[in-house]
Amino acid sequence: MDNIPNDVLLEIFRTLFDERNNWVSIGNKKTPWSIATVCRRWRSLVLGTPTFWNNINIPSASCGMQSTGLALETTLSRSGTLPISIHLSQRECPLSTHAIAALNTSVDRLKTLMIWGNDEGEKFLGGFGFPWPMPQLRCLKIDILTRRGKIFDLAAYLRPFSDCPSLEELHVTALELPTPERQVLPRDVAGLDFLWGKLVVLRLDVPMYFKTFLNVLQSCVRLKSLTLGRWCQNISVEEAYEFPLVLLPFLETLNAIHPESSIVLTRLHVPNLVELTMSLWDGYTLNLLLEVSGPLRALRTLRFVDSGDFTEEIFTEESLISSLDPMTSLPSLEVVCLRLRTASLPLALNKLVSLAPSLHLKTIWLSEWSRTPQKSELCQSIAVADSFQALVAAFLGEKKRTLECVYLDFSQGRPPPKVPEISYIPEDLQNTPLLQRLSEFQDLIVVVSL
């Protein structure tokens, strides 16, 4: 190791900083601290490289500690002048005054800010002295643990960020505590001076009135990605049709896995949608979009997930008809992604076999998060293996031959934008029932993501 040049050694270190590990956790001596303790040379390299210190996690347990302020000052100093990302958890106690002062000195460098808090969160934001100009802030994520029976004031959480001209991505989620009290009530955002028109990515999973949500979407003229939550005011379809349509001409990605959000789709016109994620057992979603937006000629990727608690009784062929049959009306559909429980996956695969003559799929993507893929139900289930073998055969028949790639994902990632040129199958998976069936198709590219 002593003979490895510094630039090569730094690249080796960077491979350890993946999306999960690329954070300096205040009060926790993990990466990059663990690397810096090996020897003087490594310590000098790590401490002197700003890119190792510009993603900062402040866990809840460290918020009130006296040492947090000094540790935060040191970390911010080591990050140089780089844009910074802050992950702040204040569910147990607010950030100390010293730490707030340290963070405020670098607020103009904020690129990403993620806040976890309780339903008193709007009060601790006041300690920062917001609103401050944050010219580099591009992504804001707020998760709030709320309680039933309280008024949820979205404007109170967003008002501190009214002076963020570069903000493009907004995620706000209300996580509900299981209490027997009445439901959380929303408060209108009328009068909130917020730059909705700048947003490109939006996720709003908070209590909102139907009209308020439509007004927000109407203002999001640049939106490319939208995730619908489960909180929207419960109104009937007949009442929803009384509101005007909202045109989102640039929207490419729509996530609508919660059945409660389907009512919003009655008022969305998304003619250029490319990717849709929906619940397998909620055929209402795709039918509504086709009704309002036409044939969705740009839709290339369709993702099905299980959401909610389902009993085995509903896993029937009839319950799949309304969900999967509309796929045949999508002229550009090339990729189908299935993230389903093993109980429902064979039924979905068998249904796709019957639809194969009307589809032109190039990639089929199966997902199951697992630390031990070789033991996963996806790889070991005989029913899944048999059904998937029949599906692949249907798309590789003499009259079809459209299927190019099968993508098996155990990391909850995303399939690559282009079909890989060669297969990748870890050796310990090759003898599982699923991979044995797939090995019979010589021209098929099979890629496994761990």
TrEMBL record:
Matching InterPro entries: F-box-like_dom_sf, F-box_dom, LRR_dom_sf
Pfam families from the UniProt entry: F-box-like
Top-level taxon: Eukaryota
F-box domain span: 1-56
Family annotation (PROSITE patterns): FBOX
Protein name from the UniProt record: F-box domain-containing protein
The organism's taxonomic lineage, starting at the top: Eukaryota, Fungi, Dikarya, Basidiomycota, Agaricomycotina
